[in-house]
Amino acid sequence: MNLKKMFEMQKTLDERIIKEKGLESKDLLPNTYVALDTELAEFANEGRWFKHWSKNQKPRTKIEHFCPTCDGTGDKNHDINLQYLEEGHAAEPYSKCQDWNGSGKIGESNPLLTEFVDCLHFFLSIAIKKGWEDAMNLPEEGFVEMKKKGFEGGLTGVFLEMKWMLLNSYMSKDQSTKKTRFSLAWALFLSIGTIGFGFTLEQIEAAYMDKNAVNHQRQQEGY
C-alpha cells in the first residue's frame, strides 16, 4: 500500500476543503476525530459481527445496482407495464432497454470496504495534521504474528481496543504517548480490515483512490 501517495492525495483534498470552505483559521483536529469515530461506527454497522440480536451477522460486502429505467429486468417497458397491470390493461411487449447495454445491472459495490476507506481518509488526515505520518508505517511482521494468534476477545475486543487507543491519542494528558497510541489504533484498524475481513492492501488502496476521486467530485458539486 503506497502510503506516501495516499498522504499526498489526502493532503490535496484536505487543503482544497479548507480553502473552499474558508477554514484556514480553524482548528479542525477535534472535528476530524469525531468524523473518524462516526465512520468507524458506520463501518461496524456494515460489518454486523456484533449484532447478537440479529440472525444476519454476515458483513455487507456486495450490493448489486440495477438500471433505473428497467429496474434490472432488461425490459424498457417494465415500469409502464406495472402501471398497466394495476389498471387492468394489457402489457406492452418486451422491448430491450438501451441503457447499460440492456443488461439491467449497472454494477456492484462493497459497502464494508467503502466504509473502511472512509475511515482511512480520516486516519490520514489526523496523521497529516499532527505530523504523525511515520506512525502509520508498520512492520509486516506484526501482522503475521497477529494473524497467527488471532484477536483476543474476537472482532469486538480488537475493535474496542482500537477505539480506546484512538480516543486516547487525542484525550491523553501524557503528550509522549499520544503518537504511540495513534500508531497502535491504526495497526489494529488495519488488522481488522486485512485479518478480520480479508481485505488485501491492494484492494484498500484501489478503493481509497476511487473514494478520494468521489470526494473531490462532491466538492466540485458544492457538497
CA-based shape: globular
Q: Supply Rg.
A: 22 Å
User: What is the overall number of helices?
Assistant: 8
What would CATH call the homologous superfamily of the largest domain?
A: Type II deoxyuridine triphosphatase
CATH class label of the largest domain:
Mainly Alpha
Helix content: 55-70%
Trace the largest sheet across and list its strands: 1-2
Give the total of beta strands.
Answer: 2
User: Approximately how much beta-strand content do the residues carry?
Assistant: under 5%
Helical/strand content category: mainly alpha
* Major β-sheet profile: 2 strands, antiparallel
Distance between the termini: 29 Å
Order of helices and strands: HHEHEHHHHH
Number of separate domains: 2
Annotated CATH architecture of the largest domain: Orthogonal Bundle
Please name the CATH topology of the largest domain: all-alpha NTP pyrophosphatase fold
Query: What is the overall pLDDT average?
Result: 88
Low-confidence stretches: none
